[in-house]
Structures are given as C-alpha cells and as structure tokens.
UniProtKB/TrEMBL annotation:
Protein name: Reverse transcriptase zinc-binding domain-containing protein
C-alpha cells in the first residue's frame, strides 16, 4: 500500500509539480484531460483547513506558514517575530538542531529584539521547547476532524 501511494505521488508530481513540502500538487492549469484532478486540487485549501502537521524530521513543514506548533501558524501567533524573520520561507528542519535530545532551536532574525519584543521571544521559544519531537520519523499530515487523526470521507 505504501509503495502504491508513493507511485501515485510520483506520477502526480511529474505531471503537475508539487507545492512546498511535497504535500500537494501545484495548481492545475489547462483545460484538456485534467478536469478530475483540477476539481480535486481546487479543494486543497479547504481540506488543509482541517489538518495539522506533526513534526518528524521537519523537512516537509514550513516553519512559519504551516500549522505544526500550536493551533495556528507561527506567523499568525507571533506576527512581530515573523516580520523580522531572516528566512520566512524556511522549513522546520532549517531552524533546529536535532543531533541530540532535546532539540535546540536556532531561529534567525534580521535584527536583535527590541525591549517590547522580549515577551514575544520568550513565549515563542517556550512554545518551541515544549514540543514533543518524533526523532527520525517522517513529517505527517494529521486530520483534525477525527479522534484518531486519520482522514475519512465521512468526517470531511
């Protein structure tokens, strides 16, 4: 089953390309022989609104844009820090060192923090260090509408 899913993912990736992290194909353009996939792909944003990422290696999760740490994306939870992020498009893996437990976080900013930002920086790092890390595992996309975090058509 896992090999079959990987095969379909590769076929779709070759045909349409994928968005950051590889979770979904790029938006489908064209009118000929793409109708079904175009319809499915158009529902991605609605689908993603019911999902949350679970960090493993952190290579497929956008640090600031995806919901993986708390109930909202970090750019929404800490907008003042997002504005001064050195790399707002970085992955989770690019901001952490996980060679040993616990993880060490190294988030770079364009300038040093101002006095009024110290509280946000403290809350930010407290949130990051409170995370449970699944070392060595792949990142996962979890469905938030069911107790077992697995997608079902009925729950959608």
């Amino acid at each position: 089953m896992h090999e079959e899913n990987a095969l379909w993912r590769n076929i779709l990736d070759v045909k349409y390309g994928s968005i950051w992290g590889g979770w979904c194909t790029k938006e489908v353009r064209g009118a000929y022989r793409v109708g079904v996939w175009k319809f499915i792909r158009n529902g991605w944003n609605d689908f993603l609104g019911n999902c949350k990422y679970e960090m493993g290696r952190g290579t497929q999760i956008s640090f600031w844009h995806d919901i993986w740490c708390g109930d909202v994306a970090l750019k929404s939870a800490f907008p003042s820090l997002y504005r001064i992020a050195l790399d707002p498009d970085s992955s989770v893996a690019e901001n952490m060192c996980s060679t040993a437990e616990p993880i060490h976080w190294f988030v770079s900013f364009t300038r040093v923090a101002q006095d009024w930002e110290v509280g946000d920086i403290t809350d930010f790092y407290n949130m990051l260090y409170a995370l449970k890390h699944r070392a060595g595992r792949e990142d996962r996309l979890l469905w938030t509408c069911t107790g077992n975090k697995k997608f079902s058509v009925r729950s959608y």
